[in-house]
Amino acid sequence: MKLKFIEEKIFKVLMILSTLFVFGVVANILYTVVKEGWAAMNWDMITKLPGGGFYIGKEGGLLNAIVGSLYIVGASTVLGLIISIPVVFYLNVYRSRKSKVAYVARLAFDIMFGIPSIVYGAFGFSIMVYLGLKTSLLGGIIVITLLIIPIFIRSMDEVARELPKDIIDASYSLGATRLETIKVVIRQIAPGIATATLLSIGRAIGDAAAVMFTAGYTDSIPTSLGQPAATLPLAVFFQLSSPIEEVQQRAYAAALILTIIVLILSLLGRFITNRFSKNKVQ
Q1: Between the CA of residue 157 and those of 85, 89, 133, 214, what are the distances in Å?
Q2: Residue 71 has pLDDT above 90, yes or no
Q3: What's the pLDDT at 141?
Q4: Which of 181, 229, 185 is nearest to 205 (CA)?
Q5: pLDDT recorded at residue 1
């Protein structure tokens, strides 16, 4: 009995230390980004395009990277949802959850989930070279969509698998069609869809390797899908590589803007998740 008590105390201390370590790392990252980025932050940084001497410490801002990131993330998120939701319903409504097809599909998406983003970028770049396409906003959207589809599918699938089968059976027993049953399922897994969207946006907006190969970089805002697009992660990468201290501070400013965007999206995702959770059958 005494030995069991000691073991519980040891594991409790380990859990507390692990939690404090994680919070400490996160706090240190946020402190560094805010401290270094706030010094370079001003209204021009978020409302103006890079000027002629921006990369040597002169006038201009990061509007091109902000808009480019929002373009790519917004479009890829919509495309990812359009592709992923039917797949999740096929695996959980049209097919048996424990069928061999569902097992192989989940295994494939698990493998795709773990593939590094730079591999997606290289794959997208090789396809673009084969088709004779240049780096563009469209290329960035396509490769980011491919990157986040496994996140969408596996996150929503895990929620759908926890949905009681009695709900689906009850819908069918009342004479509902499969399409009407899908509407019932959507209301039940809506919090999971919101969570999956949040996770996907977080990875999409912070990725640099994939868009470096496919979206390119530009100091202007793209006006068509065929033009290159800048992103905030690439702005951080390029400016932090500069030997000029003021330009390096602007890299931290870009990181701070990126962090704020992710924070806003996280809070919005929490709000949506809590709202849709009211409709979930326990």
Answers
A1: 9, 8, 34, 29
A2: yes
A3: 92
A4: 229
A5: 59
